[in-house]
Amino acid sequence: MRHGTHGSQRITRSGAVLLASAVVLTACGDSSHPLGGKPYDAADQVAVSADTEGRGAVDAEKPLEVTATGEEGRITDVLVVDTEGRYVRGELSADGSRWRSTTPLVAGAEYTVKVSTENEDGHAGRTDRTFTTRKAPKEHRLDVTFGPEAGTYGVGQPLTAELSKPVDENAQRRVVERALRVTSTPKVTGSWHWVDGTKLHYRPKEYWPTNAEITVESRLRGVRVRKNLYGAATEKLELKTGDRVEAVADAASLQMTVKRNGEVVNTFPITTGKAGFRTRNGVKVILGRQSFVRMTSTSIGIAPGSSESYDLPVHWATRLTWSGEYVHAAPWSSGSHGYSNVSHGCTGMSTANAEWFFNNVRQGDLVTHVNTEGTDMPAFGNGFGDWNLSWKEWREGSALHNPRNSGDTDEPGDRETAEAPDTSEAAASGGGAGRLRPTA
Are 315 and 329 in contact (CB under 8 A)? Predict the structure, then answer.
């Protein structure tokens, strides 16, 4: 009996709980509650400044406004998004009478405006509108050209973005930089660096991984950079990396050591720049290769007929700087290879070694010169010296990652990092290589 009584009490308590739950559920689902029914059509209670009434697309330069047209209700929420999923931020007045955009519209985009309202009885209303913004005229478009061309490169190859118009103010640079997306597999951490108002370079914190797949794209199309300047459509760039090939040329030991994926694959004697023509110290990225180049001293400002003048054919030339530093064959100075620095700035070696080097490197591979007593390789302006900047220095050139810019007002666009989800020369007898531009 005691056992049966205890069970009866338990059932009674359970029933009470179920009854209480049923009451709560009934109250929440009561259609008489102001928020329980279907939202009413609020189309006649809301005005949108972008309503064109058949007049076509609207001006993206003008802000978007949504207003309550009568005294019967107020605006509670506004959601504005284009077909690419880009949202427009805005502010709603305290009394719910007006909402106004605080970020620019995108040119040449189709938008949906979803407006939620509430009437004086507390019932919810809803209305949707759509509109299209006009495309920016050509003279108001900012074109972006990515580099290098699609292909396979060494792990030191920086990415470049060339702008058709200068962008100098930091807030505007943030808009551009945020829209330039770099992804890679395997993933890396990297950053853009503003070289000047029309050029950006991108590199990872460390060299690219070997056999990586890299994609560069712009989400700037239609995005307002400043008054009367909008991003243009840009084709994405896809490229790959090969093995990690690094050469170190030591002007003190007069030896070049070449590594592939960390393993030494060749070492040979060299000559580098002599006094007055010292080779630059630092990391250089291979710019290209030419099996034959005619090199003349006049291209580096040496007067014809002087003791330093030359005009010679050069074979197996691998270019390191735009001003004329190469790794190349220098048979005229063979007696100096491994013994003395006699060139005009290039790295000379035997014809066989130069041919081997030429055939075992590609654009984007790395050549580092040490102990040359020359000036340092600049980061920009004479090839790719990007890796001579520390990671801290590199990030300081970013409009997004430089801590000094952290207080700037955000602009529209997508902030992306590089983290992808599983997302010449010649010399007379006894002379050497020179730092010059080929004439042919």
Answer: yes
Encode pLDDT of 286-333 as tens digits.
Answer: 999 999 998 776 667 777 767 676 778 899 999 999 999 999 999 999
The SS3 of residue 55 is coil
CB-based contacts of 285: which residues, under 8 Å, 6+ apart? 154, 156, 157, 158, 320, 364, 365, 366, 367, 383, 384, 385, 386, 387
Task: Give the containing element (helix H, strand E) for 177.
Answer: helix 170-179
pLDDT, tens only, 358-411 = 999 999 999 999 999 999 999 999 999 999 999 999 999 999 988 666 544 444
Active site residues per annotation: 328, 346
Half-sphere exposure of 427 (CA within 13 A, CB side): 29
Secondary structure (DSSP) of 253-297: TTEEEEEETTEEEEEEE-B-B-TTSPPPBEEEE--EEEEEEEEEG
For tokens 């730092």, the residue is 435
- Secondary structure element (H or E) that encloses residue 9, with its range: helix 2-28
**pLDDT confidence of residue 295:** 77
Compute the distance between CA of residue 199 and CA of residue 145 in angstroms, rounded to an integer. Answer: 10
DSSP 3-state assignment of 327?
strand
Residues of the chain with pLDDT under 50: 1-31, 407-440
How large is the C-alpha radius of gyration of the chain?
Answer: 33
Provide the β-strand partners of residue 29: none
Which pTM value belongs to this model? 0.80
| DSSP result, 137-155 | PGGGEE-EEEES-SSEE-T
H or E stretch including 124? Answer: strand 124-132
- The H or E element that residue 10 is part of is helix 2-28
Give every strand in the sheet of 144-147, ordered side by side.
144-147, 159-163, 199-204, 190-196
Determine the Cα–Cα distance for residues 368 and 359; give it in Å rounded to an integer: 18
